[in-house]
Amino acid sequence: MAKKTPKKVKHVPQRTCVGCREVNAKRALVRIVRTEEGLRIDLTGKAAGRGAYLHAQQSCWQKGLKGALAHALKVELTEQDREILRTYMAGLPDEPTEQDETPTGLERETVDHE
Ligand SMILES: [Zn+2]
């Protein structure tokens, strides 16, 4: 069990997007939580239950729907779950243009500087 230490360290919680596997600040990701009634989009980030995170972009949700999310949450996605996810996904922006197949030869930089 983790102790409650009153540290004043400014640490940004990091989470892994189950779609693209990139680590990002928790608040930049959308939490999906597994409840007894099925999956839910947890906009507060505080709902009880096993959670997984996805970027707020459709490409990550599509990967999540293909199985990454089910795997992360250790559930089989029901049709209702998929419906919830698809509905939410429909309101998200498409994948960023940097992932387009542009023949620039530029590699995506994955190095982060704090
Ligand atoms: Zn992602």
In short:
This protein is α+β, with helices and mostly antiparallel strands and 114 residues long.
Secondary-structure topology with pairs:
Blueprint: E1 14-16, E2 23-25, E3 29-35, E4 38-42, E5 51-55, H1 58-73, H2 79-90
Antiparallel strand pairs: 1-2, 3-4, 3-5
The chain binds zinc ion (ZN).
Radius of gyration: 16 Å
Termini separation comes to 29 Å
The CATH architecture classification is 2-Layer Sandwich
Q: Which strands sit side by side, in order, in the main sheet?
A: 4-3-5
Task: Explain the overall architecture.
This protein is α+β, with helices and mostly antiparallel strands and 114 residues long. It has one domain: YlxR-like (Hypothetical Cytosolic Protein, Chain: A), CATH 3.30.1230.10. The chain has two helices and five strands, in the order E-E-E-E-E-H-H. The strands form two sheets. It has a three-stranded antiparallel β-sheet, covered by helices on one side. Strands 1-2 form a two-stranded antiparallel sheet. Helix 1 runs antiparallel to helix 2 (79-90). The longest helix is centred in the middle third of the chain and has 16 residues, at 58-73. It starts with 13 loop residues before the first strand and ends in a 24-residue tail after the last helix. Bound molecules: zinc ion. Zinc ion binds at residues 17, 19-20, 22, 55, 60. Residues 17, 19-20, 22, 55, 60 line the site of zinc ion.
